[in-house]
Amino acid sequence: MNRRIKPVEACIESAERKGLERTLGPIQLMLLGVGAVIGTGIFVLTAVGAERAGPGLLLSFVIAATVCAFAALAYAELAAMVPVAGSAYTYSYVVIGELVAWLVGWNLILEYAVAGAAVAVGWSGYMTGLLQSMGIEIPLALKAGMFAVEGGGVNLIAVTATLTVTGLLIVGTRESVYFTTALVFVKMLALGAFIFIAVPRIDWANFQPFMPYGFGTTEEGGVAKGVMAAAALIFFAYIGFDAVSTAAEETRNPNRNVPIGLIGSLIICTTVYVLVAAGAVGTTSYLELAGNTEPLASILRTLGFPTVGNLVALAAIIALPTVVLMMVFAQTRILFVMSRDGLLPEKLSTVHPRFRTPHIITMVTGLFVAVVSGLFSVDEIAELSNTGTLFAFVVVSISVMVLRRAQPDRHRPFRCPTLWLVGPLAVAGCLYLFSSLPKLAQGRFAIWTAIGAVVYFLYGYRRSPLGKQ
Q1: Which residues contact 275 (CB under 8 A, 6 or more apart)?
Q2: Domains in the chain and their CATH numbers?
Q3: What does the UniProt entry say about where the protein is found (predicted)?
Q4: What is the pLDDT of residues 146-196, one digit of tens each?
Q5: What is the largest CA-CA distance in the chain?
Q6: How many whole angstroms separate alpha carbon 97 and alpha carbon 271?
């Protein structure tokens, strides 16, 4: 069996023949990336990360961001060369081959579906708490899934949120981004308020000891602890920046704007994360943060700003749906391209005649995420989304280096600087983070990948146009 590599020219030709409307500019892409990244990770995982790493959480954020930065540079070079939808799936298809591309796409499907459902369920929890504070009690059968807790039924709030953002995505990408932009402003305003209040009140004594559980990953009471254990978890907080590359086909001048969107959104998010983490562990002992489900709001209340704390909690409630929107958006674009390539049923890549969006695959994806968020608890498989992302980052980083060797003279609108340093560091960093994840998550990743291989050989391998040439 050959590798079935799809030429770059063929990808661009497919996009032109059955493509999406180009409406997005560099600022919209950066806001799209920030909207996808800043969400559950910083509003919730700050406390969990502090519990695992102590004040060393700051280092965990920097490590995760550094690995993402190396991968972002690799993404930027390929996104500028192959300005079509599909992200890591498409890039690996044109460099390594169809089987690896399918496995990348398969794992990205799981990543975005799980992440979207997880955020929807988390948002539902915030919303339920707000309604309870207003004296409105939601019955258990309507606020928790039947497979999440005993006595649960359908998480109606999570389902409603998912279906709403799905409808926005069907109506149009531009409208969805306008909605995201408005809510990104709300999130950034809330985090800015936290930084403005907390950072000047840092007590440097709270940073001692800086790494109470050490640098590497160790098991303590059944929980992985250490700076690297927290980095492997905190990596979830950066999932989404690569969603910018899935919008390449809907971007004006993608050769220039996609790299700006990728790198710009990552810089903004990293700066905000480090400042928020410093304010959190610098004003409150990491021991007190453990188990807190709304750490930023609680810290502000403790510092004597209860009204601001409540507003930050409200901002999280208002803004978290942008993350659900971006997870659904990214998954639909990957499925759209896989369908257009013949590896999934062609009907899925139908474009709406009026809205110029892939409405069928968007509806299928939205319904799937709604069912998962409505019926299940996704905490046990949340870390699985990291495994799929890390796998994609490794493949993209390798793809850039392979293409540099195989086609050194091909025009590159954006060139990854010092690639032979950045590329290996990206691969090594991703593998290190992967090894720091729980063994259970690693095992589930292996099982899911094996299932994907079986599906490919039963369906995609036989129907791929490249196999008929």
Answers
A1: 195, 199
A2: 19-119+172-309+383-468 (1.20.1740.10)
A3: Membrane
A4: 877 777 888 898 899 889 888 888 876 665 666 666 777 888 888 899 999
A5: 70
A6: 36
